[in-house]
Amino acid sequence: GGGTWGVVTNVKYKLYPVTPITSTYWMIEGWENAPGKSAYTVLSIWLEFLIELSKDLDPRFGGFWRGNGIYLVFAGTREEADEAFLTRFEAWYNIKLIPK
Which pTM does this prediction carry? Predict the structure, then answer.
């Protein structure tokens, strides 16, 4: 068999509006940030929160767990990210993991 080749004579691009990306990294280390709580306890509390919240979590969120924290990415502005999830997450983090 032989090869084939072609010459491009016309190209058409479709452009989309730029979407801002918001990212954040939260350290969740039970042995440092949550006095009296083990890493296992902190992870259990986090998973309970995530399971409850995931029922209506905005699909523009993504991220991953890194053992000592969570990295979150949101396709939108910081204000939209706060409204969709980050404000609730920060409140949970401060109440559940770092009680005053």
Answer: 0.62
